[in-house]
Amino acid sequence: MVGVWTIRSVNVEFPRFSPDDADALVELLTGEEWPFHASVQEETAIRRRIADGVYDDADNRTFWLVADGERAGLVRLQDLTDWTPMFDLRIRAAWRGRGLGTATLKWLTGYLFEQFPAFNRIEGNTRQDNLAMRAVFRRCGYVKESHYREAWPAPDGPVYDSVGYAILRRDWISGTTTLPDWDDEPTSVA
Fold first, then answer.
1. In the chain, how long is the greatest CA-to-CA distance?
2. How many distinct helices (H) and strands (E) make up the chain?
3. pLDDT tens digits for 76-95?
4. DSSP letter (8 states) at residue 84
5. Residue 5 has what pLDDT?
6. Contact predicate 62/56, CB 8 Å
7. What element of type H or E holds 33?
8. Secondary structure in 3-state letters for 135-189
9. Phi, psi torsion values for 163, nearest 5 degrees
10. Backbone angles phi and psi of 55, in degrees to 5
11. Cα gap 95→72, rounded to integer Å
12. What is the Rg, in whole angstroms, of the alpha carbon atoms belonging to the chain?
């Protein structure tokens, strides 16, 4: 999974974040609008989280999304000591809509399943109105498993629905998609 990927004539790499990259991380998180993320990032809080190991420790690994030599975003892998890892993906506005989300999700799926043989599934969540990310999930073999009504508060006040997707290791290996059994409730109520 290491190396250079080419998507639409763009070379993409995923180097691991280092605490020496603190200034670049602060610039990325504070210098962009992140319309589908729940909180506004402040420099002091970011630096404290870097010092606390939140971006790189036993439970988290962060990787830059480098496109044609430019830091186009990042992906933070979370819950690595749990049974089901999750992730936070951020792509700079100038690079959105160019296939980097799909490339990154394919990369991180392979990375997690190859580096962590005990993982059976990977989860991700997004806001209901983030149609681009929802399409990326489906394109990469992830299946919608949950829909939480009014569960994602936005910094500017409204509360959105949260939608959860996941991929199973067996589906990743086989290239198939296994859908949840949505009709498993009994038809009569006792």
1. 62
2. 5, 8
3. 999 999 999 999 999 999 99
4. S
5. 55
6. yes
7. none
8. HHHHHCCCEEEEEEEEEEECCCCCEEEEEEEEEEHHHHHHCCCCCCCCCCCCCCC
9. -120, 130
10. -95, -15
11. 6
12. 17
CATH number (3.40.1010.20, 3.40.630.30, 3.40.50.300, 3.40.50.1010) of 5-174 reads: 3.40.630.30
Q: Rounded to an integer, what distance in angstroms lies between the CA atom of residue 3 and that of residue 151?
A: 38
User: Domain limits of the chain?
Assistant: 5-174
Task: Please name which of 127, 132, 74 lies closest in space to residue 99, comparing C-alpha atoms.
Answer: 132
Give tens-digit pLDDT for 103-151. 999 999 999 999 999 999 999 999 999 999 999 999 999 999 999 999 9
Nearest to residue 36, comparing CAs of 143, 133, 140, 146?
A: 133
* Helix ranges (DSSP H) in 92-140: 100-115, 131-139
DSSP β-bridge partners for residue 13? 66
SS3 127: strand
Q: Residue 59 and residue 19: Cα distance in Å, rounded?
A: 16
List the structure tokens of 61: 């690994």
| pLDDT at residue 176 in the model | 92
